[in-house]
Amino acid sequence: MHEPAETLGMRPIDDVAGLFDLSGRVAVVTGATRGLGLAIATGFAQAGAELVVVSRKADACEEVATALRARGARAVGCACHVGNWGGLGDLVDRVYRDFGRIDVLVNNAGISPVYGKPSEVTEELFDKVIAVNLKGPFRLAALVGERMMAAGGGSIINVSSTGAIRPTSDIIPYAAAKAGVNAMTVGLADALGPRVRVNAIMPGPFLTSISRTWDMDLFAERARTFPLRRAGAAEEIVGAALYLAGDASSYTTGAVLTVDGGARWSMPGTGDDRTTPHPSADGTDSRGEGDSRAEATGRLT
């Protein structure tokens, strides 16, 4: 027998669509020029948000911002290397100067350089992976989160990876950094609550720029072990991001939301075959910052 809603102290929802409406809100998305980051930025713009498109290359940022403006959104590009701790304060100051506030921060940019044996990982490579995947998101969340608290609230979304919980030999530094992102998400939710919500999305395999290098026959064989039997399309990350960004998630914080078609439950790869992805390959290019798995050569886009 169900109690009436009013007996349980529940309020009726008059506008369900409004729970996902971002009209008038300012969203900063790092790694927003391609892949999952581009899909999230585009989805936010369609939901009414004003966008700050962040990536290392100014021309790539402006190209995306121009495309969003052509669709009626207010959007600006802002070049910034998220692995540069000292430069992140300048980024935050610029956004607050131009927009007056930040309502949503998406820490999406990331890198995962290709290497051979673990012993071949250099200190420079390891430090670069930690800087972009963990240190940068922490610093941005700390700087923006405190200003969000002072302004009355906001939402921070960290993009992790199923590699954090299912690492293989070819993504060890990256997986370690993303495991740190998961822990950081919970800790920041505690530090910034109750006004600011901090959550993470943990994507699995997505068909973006990285998939161009896959042996799709081998991937199809592996995907048969996934509950949904396929990789995701970039736009399939948008629903999770909209949920965490908007009022629909008003009672959600410190959560790590997995979006992977169930791939994490499949058997992990050995790391020997680099042409077919481990289930943690979250839809990003191993050559450049753009999503939560990228960069081998230092090319950050």
What structural class should be given to the helix and strand makeup?
alpha/beta
Percent range for helical residues? 25-40%
**Residue runs with pLDDT of under 50 for 5 or more positions:** 270-276, 283-289, 291-301
Order of helices and strands: EHEHEHEHEHEEHEHE
Total domain units: 1
Silhouette: globular
Query: What is the alpha-carbon Rg in Å?
Result: 19 Å
What is the terminal-to-terminal distance? 56 Å
If classified by CATH, what would the architecture be? 3-Layer(aba) Sandwich
Note the main sheet: 7 strands, parallel
Count of extended strands: 9
Count the helices. How many? 7
Strand proportion, as a percent range, falls in 5-15%
In quaternary terms, these chains amount to: single chain
Return the CATH topology. Rossmann fold
> What is the CATH C-level name?
Alpha Beta
List the SSEs and their pairings:
Blueprint lengths: L25 E5 L4 H12 L3 E6 L2 H13 L4 E5 L5 H15 L4 E4 L15 H29 L2 E6 L12 H21 L3 E8 L2 E2 L8 H8 L8 E2 L4 H8 L10 E4 L42
Parallel strand pairs: 1-2, 1-4, 2-3, 4-5, 5-6, 6-9, 7-8
Helix pairs in contact: 1-7, 3-4, 4-5
Characterise this structure.
This protein starts with 25 loop residues before the first strand and ends in a 42-residue tail after the last strand. The protein has a 7-stranded parallel beta sheet with strand order 3-2-1-4-5-6-9, sandwiched between helices. It has a two-stranded parallel ribbon with strand order 7-8. The protein is globular. Helix 1 (35-46) packs across helix 7, helix 3 (85-99) runs parallel beside helix 4 and helix 4 runs parallel beside helix 5 (172-192). The longest helix is centred in the middle third of the chain and has 29 residues, at 123-151. The chain has a single domain, classed as NAD(P)-binding Rossmann-like Domain (Rossmann fold), CATH 3.40.50.720. The chain is of the alpha/beta class and 301 residues long. Helix content is 35%, strand content 14%. The protein contains 7 helices and 9 strands.
